[in-house]
Structures are given as C-alpha cells and as structure tokens.
Amino acid sequence: MENEKVQVEMTAEQAAQFAAFQAKQKKEAEAAQRKADRETYAKLVDEEVACAIPELRQLSEEIKAVKAKVYQNFAQVLDLKSNVLGLTKDTQRTHTFTHSEGKMRLTLGYNCIDGYRDTVEDGIAMVKEYIESLATDEKTKSLVGAIMRLLSRDGMGNLKASRVLQLRKMAEESGDDKFREGVQLIEESYQPTMTRQFIRAEYKDEKGGWHIIPLSVTDADTSNEGTDTKKE
C-alpha cells in the first residue's frame, strides 16, 4: 500500500549517527536563517535611513527658513519697542510678545553662557578679604558660608550671574564699602557669550493652560499634543 509506513531498524550506533546528522542539519538551517534575518535587517535599515534623512534635512531647512522669517518680521517690532520704551536693544536678551487676546505668545532671544574678564579675580579677592574680616561667632559663620557658596564656580570655571545678583544684595545689606566695591568689580567684569537665537511659541487651550509648541524633533512628543501645560 502507498500509505504503508516502512520501519527501518538501526543499531544504536546508526541511530546515534542519524541523530547527529539531524542535529547538524538543524544547526545549519538555523544559522542560514539568522544570516538571512541579518541581511533583511540591514536592508530595512538602509531603506529607512535613506527615506528619513532627506525628509529630516528638508524639515531642518524649513525650520531654519521660518525662524529667519520670524526674526526678520519682528525686527521692526523690536526697533519700535526700543524707541517707545526707551530701551537699548543690546541690554535685553529676550523679548516676549503676547497677543492682545491673551491666547498666544512668542519669546525671541539668545541663549547665553556666563563669562568674565580677568578683573573678576580682583573682585573675588576683595570679597574674600571682607569675609576674612568677619568675626568667628555662629552668626557670621553662617554668613561666610552663604557668601562662599555664591562665589562657587560652574563646570566651566565661571561664576553664575544669578548668584552675583544675590551677592550684590548681601553687599548692599552689609553696608561694607569693601564688600560692595568687590561685588561691583565682579559685575563690571561680566562678559557673557551670546550663543544661538531661540524662539519659544506658546498657546493657551480652552481650560486656560499654556502649551509650548514643540519646535525641535526632540521636543515633539508623538503621543501628546503640545508640552509643558501650566496654569496662570
């Protein structure tokens, strides 16, 4: 009969050899499949990268063009603001403009890295000289610690401008001329470095929450609309 199974008798040694042959075939087939999967993966990566890069380059150029247009359009607004309010444009790093309906606002500005001229060291020395002149009771120890924290430097070796403002307040409250002069010298040594221009755009939803419009690939959340909702 055609469907009748034929039984083959094998010795133990033959059975072991046949099992080893089957195991070898299976191993070779799995290795071939893994190689095919790797080739498929590499091909898919190539296809998707080749598709994504041109689109992202185009997006980058579009963002650059819109950014340039916004700054160009607001150039006249900034000039008018300077004239109306009597401000020097160079002294203000950021400008926020809110729509009269209160539902949209735009902030234009520069990122800034704190930096100081060499004369800052003279100011720091004068401030430290004032610290050394203090008494050693518990009250003044606390003041000394607070001043020293304000004089601590960041990873680039610079003082934080925000801390210098706090230092100036302490100097004014101290009434010590040497302390005030030292802080003034630190402030006069301030030489910030302006980095790239930025734009922050926001809109208010129906519940009164503000949303930052994502303007970078990193900030654009594919699962949510807008970011940083906050009440005001």
List keywords for this structure.
232 residues; alpha+beta; five-stranded antiparallel sheet; 5 strands
Write up what this structure looks like:
The chain has 232 residues and is α+β, with helices and mostly antiparallel strands. Helix content is 54%, strand content 16%. Strand 1 and strand 2 form a beta hairpin. The longest helix is centred in the N-terminal third of the chain and has 74 residues. The protein starts with 11 loop residues before the first helix and ends with a strand. The model has no long low-confidence stretch (mean pLDDT 83).
Note poorly predicted spans: none
The N- to C-terminal Cα distance equals 88 Å
Strand order of the largest sheet: 1-2-3-4-5
Please provide the count of β strands: 5
The main β sheet shows up as: 5 strands, antiparallel
Structural class: alpha+beta
For the residues shown, what is the average pLDDT?
Answer: 83
Share in helix: 40-55%
Strand content: 15-25%
Question: What Rg, in angstroms, do the CA atoms define?
Answer: 34 Å
Q: What is the number of helical segments per DSSP (H or I, 4+ residues)?
A: 5
Compressed to H and E, one letter per element, the order equals HEEHHHHEEE
C-alpha geometry: elongated
